[in-house]
Write a structure and sequence with these properties.
By secondary structure, the protein is of the alpha/beta class. The chain is built from four helices and three strands.
């Protein structure tokens, strides 16, 4: 839920930050595992105009086989932020269970924005 937290945080900022990175972030596009039983998902309304103004750069990463968050979420998030989706095939939820103990592409993108 880190991506959802970040989106809500960006809505509150008064000054823009340099960059925000989203990996496997749910934004309300089903299927999302546990969507109907988890109250964390009840507030999928975002002030996209505020969010877009809150960072100078955005990156959105999404996989096609994430067992928790469908690809449509990454596509919608990228669209709302006005950026191209970085599609990473067969990356699951970008966690150790999916084999992601390092994420060189993310590190490269973060370094580029420093």
């Amino acid at each position: 839920m880190g991506g959802v937290f970040t989106l809500k945080f960006l809505e509150q900022l008064q000054q823009p930050i340099k960059a925000a990175f989203f990996i496997g972030t749910p934004v309300g596009v089903r299927p999302i595992l546990n969507y109907d039983r988890d109250s964390s998902f009840s507030g999928f309304s975002f002030d996209w105009k505020k969010i877009v103004k809150s960072a100078k750069h955005f990156d959105v990463f999404q996989s096609d086989d994430d067992p928790y968050v469908s690809l449509g979420n990454g596509e919608e998030l990228a669209k709302q932020l006005g950026v191209e989706l970085t599609f990473v095939p067969h990356a699951g939820h970008f966690n150790a269970k999916a084999g992601y103990t390092t994420f060189p592409l993310l590190l490269e993108r973060v370094k580029r924005e420093l």
